[in-house]
Write a structure and sequence with these properties.
280 residues, alpha/beta, Ribosomal Protein L25, Chain P, 7-stranded parallel β-sheet
C-alpha cells in the first residue's frame, strides 16, 4: 500500500522551486509536523500540479524542491482523481442561508465540481448574512475542500447585495451558446412569469436530457457557463422570479417533496454536474 501524499497550495517561484502559501506552510509544519524531505504535492489552483520534496525555510514557511510536473493547465488528459478545465463550467448562485448552513453546503458544491459559487441577499433575508468574517471563512472552506477533493482549479466565490446585482453580472441571454444553460431551481406560481411552453417548469432529469449546445461546440468563446439558481429558506419573491425569468432562466423542479434550502442547494449542484458531464 502506497504512502499517503499530502497536497497543498503553492506558487511557482522558479522553474525548479515552488513556495507553499502561508496558511498551508503552517498546516504542513505546525499541524501535520511534516519533516524536511517529505514527499508532497502542490497545486496553484490554476490547473497545475507538481510533486517534490518539502524544504522548510523558517518556522512557518517552506518550499518544494526536486520538482516533477504531474499535470499542467494545458494537459489534454486529466490526471487520475483530479479535474481539468472543461468545456462547460458550473455556477451555482445561492440565496444567503442562515449562519452556519453555507459552511456545510460549500464543501459539497466544491466536491460536485462547481466552478463559481455566488451568494446573494434575497428580499427575505438581511445583509448581515454576508459578513466579511463569513466570506473569509467560506474561502478557507473552499480551499480545504479543493485539496480534499483533489481538484486543481480553485473555485471562485462571489457575493452580491441582491439578486438583481447578480443578474447584472451575467452575460446577456443572447450572448451564451446554449438556449437552456440557465436553470432556476424553484416552482414559481403561474402568475409570476410568462405562460409559455419554454418556461413551464421541468423536472431536473428533463432539463438534463434537454440540455444542448448551439453550433459545433468549437467556438472560441468556450468554456460555456451552465448556471443554476436556488433561493434561501423562504425562496424567491414574485419580483425576483420575474427578474430571473426575463434573463432566460428555465424553472426546474427538484422533485415532489419539500427540501430544506441547504438540501436544495446540494441537489441543484448535482443536477448541474450531471448536465455538465452530459454536455462534454
Amino acid at each position: 500500500m502506497s504512502k499517503h501524499v499530502f497536497r497543498f497550495f503553492a506558487s511557482p517561484t522558479s522553474a525548479i522551486q515552488w513556495t507553499l502559501d502561508a496558511e498551508d506552510a503552517h498546516h504542513a509544519l505546525k499541524v501535520l509536523r511534516l519533516p524536511a524531505g517529505e514527499t508532497v504535492e502542490a497545486t496553484d489552483g490554476k490547473g497545475n500540479l507538481i510533486r517534490g520534496t518539502l524544504l522548510p525555510t523558517g518556522k512557518e514557511s517552506a518550499d518544494i524542491t526536486n520538482i516533477s510536473i504531474i499535470h499542467t493547465a494545458h494537459t489534454a488528459e486529466p490526471v487520475a482523481g483530479s479535474d481539468t478545465i472543461s468545456r462547460i463550467q458550473l455556477e451555482l448562485a445561492v440565496g444567503a442561508l442562515k449562519p452556519g448552513d453555507l459552511d456545510d453546503v460549500i464543501p459539497a458544491l466544491v466536491e460536485l465540481g462547481v466552478n463559481r459559487i455566488s451568494v446573494f441577499i434575497t428580499e427575505e433575508t438581511g445583509k448581515n448574512r454576508i459578513a466579511d468574517k463569513s466570506v473569509e471563512r467560506w474561502n478557507r472552506i473552499i480551499r480545504t475542500a479543493t485539496k480534499q477533493s483533489k481538484r486543481l482549479w480553485l473555485p471562485e466565490l462571489a457575493t452580491y447585495d441582491s439578486i438583481n446585482d447578480w443578474l447584472d453580472s451575467l452575460p446577456k441571454p443572447s450572448e451564451i451558446l446554449a438556449d437552456n444553460a440557465r436553470w432556476m431551481f424553484a416552482e414559481p406560481e403561474p402568475d409570476h412569469g410568462p405562460d409559455t411552453e419554454d418556461r413551464k417548469t421541468k423536472s431536473g432529469f428533463q432539463a438534463i436530457q434537454g440540455f444542448s449546445i448551439r453550433g459545433d461546440g468549437k467556438s472560441a468563446d468556450w468554456p460555456l457557463m451552465l448556471t443554476g439558481l436556488v433561493g434561501s429558506e423562504r425562496g424567491f419573491s414574485a419580483k425576483e422570479v420575474q427578474a430571473v425569468l426575463e434573463q432566460g432562466f428555465m424553472p426546474v423542479s427538484l422533485g415532489a417533496h419539500v427540501l430544506r434550502a441547504r438540501t436544495a442547494a446540494i441537489a441543484a449542484a448535482t443536477m448541474l454536474a450531471m448536465a455538465g458531464h452530459a454536455g462534454q
